[in-house]
Amino acid sequence: MTDGIQRRTLLRASLIGGGMGLGVLPEALAGGAAVNPALPLGTRDEAVLEALHDKKPLIKLSYRPPNYETPLAALRGPITANDAFFVRYHLAGLPDKASLDRNWALTIDGDAAAQKVKLSLADLQRLPQHEIAAVCQCSGNRRGLSNPHVAGVEWGVGAMGCAVWRGPRLKDVLALAGVQQEAKEIGLRGADEALMDATPAFIKSMPVDRAFAPSTIVALSMNGEALPIWNGYPVRLVVAGWTATYWLKHLTHLEIRRSKVDNFWMSTAYRVPTGMFPGSAFPTQDNDKTRPITDIVINSLATSHLGGEQVKGAGFTVSGLAWNNGAGIARVEISTDDGQNWKTATLGASLGDFAFRPWSKSLTAPPGPVTVRIRATSRDGSIQPEKAIFNGSGYHHNAIQALSLTAV
Ligand SMILES: Nc1nc2c(c(=O)[nH]1)N[C@H]1C(S)=C(S)[C@@H](COP(=O)(O)O)O[C@H]1N2
Ligand SMILES: [Mo]
Asked: Which candidate among 128, 181, 366, 386 keeps its CA 20 to 30 Å from the CA of 67?
């Protein structure tokens, strides 16, 4: 996929050049304490809290490309703050803000486009704007908890966040070029680039029907502000309900295609065994053996406590979040007796079916260790499994959480 943009001019390799600047804060020294204790030892030892430019300290998993997860304390409400939102990149050549401000444009072309267009931010701002609260979750969130361990960024529980995204619908943006009947996929590309030629460009695609969904947005803002540079400034795709691999940041190119994108990121990576997980079809990419990961699976997380904390046995409240692919949360249940009995938690206000749903439960426990299990059920009936469903990429980890606390 090529486009009219001189990509090199957008790129400053700012992580090397220092354009985005890293400041290691004193918290780095205590970082280990905030890291999920269930992570493999090596990851725990290496992970530190570190602040990227314009970000609060996040849990650093790798620096180049930058992979930083959100600490639990920043996931206590249904909306994740922009400056605490996780950061995930595949490529180390990142665009800087000044060059994006000078050169950014969105090109739409392809063999099923009626015409080629090159759009400015103003063109996108003129279209009807829509707002959606939606969870952005990495396919590999919790990969570090996979048993046995698998290769990849060893994420804990914080490769996710929920924001209010605002911008035109992708459908309306594509209409500016004109989508021909033969269109099968929309190819997606952003302004970031590999620093080494051996790494394939991060080009993804999505099926035309999902591109036309009202919940698929070309986001120009996040929680009422411009997108942080780390989260896709000036424009990112929001495919509400699908895992974040489709949520292209620094979006520069949409290719309306009659044929599928066949590259490493579509044909090898980001695929799951066919039949293993529920999820929307991707007709041009699905086959008998494997298929692209699509829908977020039902999941929940206690955000009030880290494992190992002490609580007052006479009365304590565990609270957190539940989320899925937009089917909506039917209920969240809590067990303190190894899953024999489940009590219903109280759900908080809904910000929409694609958003984090808050829940809370008041509990008591006799002095000593207490394991609090949390399980969410979707309105479509799907429920979290006891054990994560093992797959070689460590995707879709949604096992029932067992939070170990000590009642005093
Ligand atoms: N341009 C670009 N967009 C991208 C990626 C990327 O590497 N480059 N990674 C995707 C993946 S796999 C994830 S999990 C999300 C992460 O979004 P965030 O960094 O805003 O949290 O961005 C998606 N969009
Ligand atoms: Mo991801």
From this structure: 386
| pLDDT reported for residue 84 | 98
Q: What are phi and psi of 134, to 5 degrees?
A: -145, 145
CA 88 to ligand 2 center in whole angstroms: 6
149-187 confidence digits (pLDDT tens): 999 999 999 999 999 999 999 999 999 999 999 999 999
Cβ–Cβ < 8 Å for 278, 173: no
Give residue 19's pLDDT band: very low, low, confident or very high (50, 70, 90): very low
Strands (E), 9-139: 22-23, 48-52, 58-62, 67-69, 87-88, 106-109, 117-119, 130-137
Q: Which residue's CA is the nearest one to ligand 1's atom 12?
A: 245
- What's this model's pTM, rounded to 2 decimal places? 0.91
**Do residues 205 and 237 make contact, with C-beta atoms less than 8 angstroms apart?**
no
User: Which atom belonging to ligand 1 lies closest to the Cα atom of 161?
Assistant: 21
Domain with CATH 2.60.40.650 in the chain: 299-407
* Alpha carbon 63 to its chain's center: 18
* Positions of CATH 3.90.420.10 in the chain: 97-143+161-292
Distance from Cα 251 to the centre of ligand 1, integer Å = 11
For residue 360, give the nearest of 297, 310, 298, 303 by alpha carbon: 303
Q: Ligand 2 centre and the CA of 312: distance in Å?
A: 38
Residue 322, both tokens: 């539940």
Nearest residue by C-alpha to atom 20 in ligand 1: 231
- May I ask the CATH class of domain 299-407? mainly beta
Can you name the CATH fold of 97-143+161-292?
A: Sulfite Oxidase; Chain A, domain 2 (3.90.420)
Q: Where are the beta strands (DSSP E) in 92-181?
A: 106-109, 117-119, 130-137, 160-167
Least confident of 2-16, 148-162, 300-314: 2-16
Best mutation site among 52, 249, 393 for ligand 1 pocket (most ligand atoms within 8 Å of CB):
249
Q: Which residues approach ligand 1 with their CB closer than 6 A?
A: 85-91, 136, 138, 190, 192, 202, 231-232, 244-245, 247-250
b/e map 267-283, b = 16+ CB within 10 Å: eebbbbeeeebbbeebe
Are 71 and 49 in contact by the 8 Å Cβ rule? The answer is: yes
Ligand 1 atom 4, closest CA: 248
Position 5 scores a pLDDT of 30
